[in-house]
Amino acid sequence: MFIRQKKNKSGSISVQIISKSHGKYKVIKSFGSSSIPETILSNVLKAKQEIRRLESSPSLFVLEKDTLIESFLSEVENGQIRTIGPELVFGKIFDHIGFNAINEELFRHLVIARLTFPLSKLKTIEYLYRYQGISLDISTVYRFLDKLNDELKNIVEQIAFAHTKRILNNNISIVFYDMTTLYFEASDEDDLRKTGFSKDGKHSNPQIFLGLLVGLEGYAIGYDIFEGNIYEGHTLIPTIEKLSKKFNLSKPIVVADAGLLSSNNIKALLENHYQFILGARIKNESETIKIKIFESNLKNNEFAVIEKPEDVKLIIAYSDKRAKKDEHNRKKGLERLEKKIKTGKLTKSNINNRGYNKYLKMEGEIKVTIDKDKFDKDKIWDGLKGYITNCKLKPEEIIDSYRNLWHIEKAFRMSKTDLRIRPIYHRKRKRIEAHICLSFVAYSIYKELERVLKIEKYPLSVEKVELTHNMYQIEIRLPESLHTKNIILKMDENQKQLIEIIDKFY
Length: 506
What we know:
Elements: E1 2-7, E2 13-21, E3 24-34, H1 37-55, H2 60-75, E4 81-83, H3 85-97, H4 105-116, H5 121-132, H6 138-167, E5 174-183, E6 207-214, E7 220-227, H7 236-247, E8 253-256, H8 263-271, E9 276-279, H9 287-295, E10 303-307, E11 313-318, H10 320-343, E12 360-363, E13 367-370, H11 372-377, E14 384-389, H12 395-403, H13 406-416, H14 429-456, E15 472-477, E16 484-488, H15 493-505
Parallel strand pairs: 5-8, 8-9
Antiparallel strand pairs: 1-2, 2-3, 4-15, 5-6, 6-7, 9-14, 10-11, 11-14, 12-13, 15-16
Helix pairs in contact: 3-4, 3-14, 4-14, 6-14
C-alpha cells in the first residue's frame, strides 16, 4: 500500500491510499481533496496512520499509540505549519549572493515571494500571511517600493554585479544586450508608459522597454528601462555607456541581435571605440555583397569573411541544420498564408514586406495570390547566417560568442513566465522600477540555483523546483519542558537531494 496525492483538474489535491494486486491499482480509502497545503498535509498524515493500522495486527499497544498520535494531531493548528522550502533554498542563495546586506526584512520576503508565488503585490501579502504567518498592509509594501527605488536600487545592482564578477572570475570582457517590451493592464499613458510596437502582441496596451545586459552564460550585469514608444535601436549606446560607467567596465565586446543593427548604432560603437558583434540582415545587403555571399558556395559549418568599410567585416556562416529549419519555417509560413487566402480575409492592406507576407501579390484589383516564384527564390538563403563585427577575434570565436545570445533570450522568457514580471499593474514610475528591481534580484538568484544544479547534475531543472512549495515545518510546544521546537517534516528523495546540494554550496 502507498499514499497517492492526485492533482485534480480544479488544482486541488486528493489524498488516497492505493493498493496494487495482480498488476491492478485499487483505491482503499480517500481522505478528501483540498488546495490548502495545511489541509493536504493533515490528510497525508491521516493516510499514514490508516496504513499503519491496516498493516499491523490489533493490539492494546498499537491502539494506545494510535490514540496518542490522533490526540497530538488534533491539537495541531494551521498556524503551526509553515512552508519552509523557499527559505531553505532561495533564502540561502539570497544570503550567499550578498543581498542580506540590505537590512530590510520586507525586501527578502518580496524577493522570495517573487520566486515562489510570483503574483500581484496584494496576492503576495495574502501568500506571506497564509504560508509564512507574516502580516503586512499594502500601504507598507508600497512605501517600501518607493524606498527601494530611491535608496536601495543602486546597492542591489552593485551586489548582483559583484556576484557575477565572482562567478565569471572577473572576466567581463564580453557582454550581451537585448530589449523586450513589458505591457500594462491600465489603458492610460504617461511619460513612461506609452503605446508602441509590442513584442508581446499587446499593441493597444501602454508599455515600457526593458534593456538587459548580461555576461557569459547569462549572468546578470544590469538593466535599464525606457519609454514604451522608443525605437529599440536608440537604447543600445545609452545603456552600454551608463552601465559601463556604473560598474567601471573597460570597453567590453558588445553582442546584440539584428534588431539593434543600424548604421547609427555601428557609427556610435565605432566612435566610442567599442568592439561589437551584431546579427546581420544579409538580405538587405547591397547587390555587390550578395554576389560575394553566393560566390562563397559554403558547405556545412563553413564560413566566409567579407570586408566592409571602416574595418568592419561581414562573416557569413552556413549550416545544414539551419537550412532545414529555415525551409521548415518558410513552408509553415506559406501554409498559413494559403489558409488565410481560402478564408477570403486577405486584402490590399496585407500586401507588405513583413514576415511571410512578402510572398503575397495582387492580381487585378481585389484578388490576392501567392507569388510562388518569390517563395522558391528565397530558398537560396536557407542555412545562411550573417554577423557584422569589428572584432579581432577569430571568425569561429565570433560565431560562438553570438550563439551565447540565447542566454539573454532565456532570461526574458524566464522573467515573463517563471517570475511573471508581466503584466505590470503599477502606475507610478517609482513602483514600476522597484517591481523590475525585485524581478532582477529574483533572476540573479535563479541563475545561481541553475548553476549549482548543473554542477551537481540534479535530475530536475531550475524551472521544476516547485517542490520547495511542499516542504513544511511544524512548530510544537513540548509538554514537559514547555520549550517550542520547529520540526521540518520528512521530505521525498528529490527534496532531500536538493537540500543536500544547497547545504553543500552555501
